[in-house]
Write a structure and sequence with these properties.
By secondary structure, the protein is an alpha+beta fold. The chain has one domain (7-137): Bit1 (3-Layer(aba) Sandwich). 38% of the residues lie in helices and 24% in strands. The protein has 5 helices and 7 strands. It has helices at 19-36, 68-80, 91-95, 99-107, 125-132; strands at 7-14, 45-46, 52-53, 63-66, 85-90, 116-124, 136-137. The strands form 2 sheets. A 5-stranded mixed sheet has the order 5-6-1-4-7, sandwiched between helices. A hairpin with a 5-residue loop joins β2 (45-46) and β3 (52-53). The two termini are 26 Å apart.
């Protein structure tokens, strides 16, 4: 997928999480998106003094909140749409101490049994809004 003028991205995070896990969830979801969405990150920019600031995202990343049940439903609905990138961060991922352990545990699980801490959606603005427009900002 590639960023264009009709792109939208949102993070939907479990409203019951403590602030540290909210931050961790958002960071992990951002990492997932940057590996899958071309041109999501811009370019380094210089300030008036010539100091170079590393690139940041080219699209807004609103942080929305949802219950665990809402996250599960949203994940299922979003995955049905083949025009969206859906990245989830689950309790399995959060509790794994290595990527190999995470991959091994995931291989034995069905997506329906995961408890999502957060989900990132990227795609056409209207489609993302259709799925998330009812949710409140964090």
């Amino acid at each position: 997928m590639t960023v264009n003028k009709n792109s939208k991205c949102v993070f939907v995070i479990d409203a019951s999480l403590p602030v540290g896990l909210v931050a961790n969830t958002a960071a992990v979801l951002a990492t997932a998106l940057t590996s899958k969405v071309q041109d999501l990150v811009g370019w380094d920019v210089a300030d008036a003094a010539g100091y170079l600031h590393p690139a940041i995202t080219r699209v807004g990343l609103p942080m929305l909140r949802a219950s665990v049940a809402e996250l599960a439903t949203l994940h299922d609905r979003a995955r049905e749409a083949n025009d969206l990138l859906v990245a989830g961060f689950s309790d399995v991922a959060q509790q794994s101490r290595s990527y190999d352990a995470y991959a091994s545990r995931m291989a034995g699980l069905d997506a329906g049994g995961l408890r999502f801490l957060g989900i990132a959606l990227f795609g056409h603005r209207e489609r993302v809004s259709e799925l998330t427009g009812h949710l409140d900002l964090m």
